[in-house]
Amino acid sequence: MNYSLFSEPRAAAPVTGPHGRLFAASMLAFVGVFVVGLLAIFFADVSYINRQAIGEVLCTPEIGAALWLSLWTTTVTTALGLLLAVPMGYALSRYRFPGHAVVDSIVDLPIILPPLVVGLSLLVFFQTAVGRWIEDAGVKFVFQRKGIILCQLLVSASFGIRAIKLTFDGVDPRIEHVAMTLGCTRAGAFFRVALPMARRGIIVGAILIWTRAFGIFGPLMVFVGAVRFRTEVLPTTVYLEQSVGRIEVALAVAILMLVLAAAALVVVRVVGLGQR
């Protein structure tokens, strides 16, 4: 008997030829134009600054304080964001409840809202009775460093929630059900099975929260201001420097932010490719 007659047919190879190569070249041309445009803007910024501007960024106490404030506030924001994003991402992925689609859409609102609206809304909220009660209780946010973290959290947490939800969507719930049949509780299945399997997505979510929080500007100007050595972070440093005509220093600070953000994006790509 010829068993080859019963073998599965091979998948047909993709048809290649001049038309296929022309189509691929036209698609890649869009990529090339976009990337070259971004690089041209970046190198224009680099060529505009001078050594003196770089030295001021590295040595000026005001900019050093803004860099330190940016780093530690975004780190705290990332930790708080993960405390929200992990349980919320899991709940939105695993459970269905009345109004699920509405809640899921509300979670995404900070992604599509102009960030300036967040700062303005916070400022108005703390003029209400509830907001004044919070302030009178000693937890002050308006024009305070805690307000920086609050702004960053509201603007960036949704990115982490969405990334972590998509990660949990990719974890087969049947694996958790098997763990529960072997004696795990629901919480045990979450901590021992789902959470370890989603660790790369959680790292990606953390970096997305960090990068988004690191670069916000509008809400901070409205809600906490830009007082040097108190509420000034790197995005507001760029604004303050260019507002007094120090364009070279403002660009040097912007390039520093770009380098830090690019490093975070590289980590996202590496972690994401490793997961895939």
Textual characterization of the structure:
With 276 residues, the protein is an all-alpha fold. It has a domain at 71-233: MetI-like fold. The protein is 77% helix and 0% strand. The protein is built from 14 helices and no strands. The protein has helices spanning 18-48, 51-59, 61-94, 100-107, 109-112, 115-125, 129-136, 145-169, 173-181, 186-197, 199-215, 218-223, 234-243, 247-275. Helix 3 (61-94) packs across helix 11 (199-215), helix 9 packs across helix 10 and helix 11 packs antiparallel against helix 14 (247-275). The longest helix has 34 residues, at 61-94. It starts with 17 loop residues before the first helix and ends with a helix. Residues 1-8 have low confidence and may be disordered.
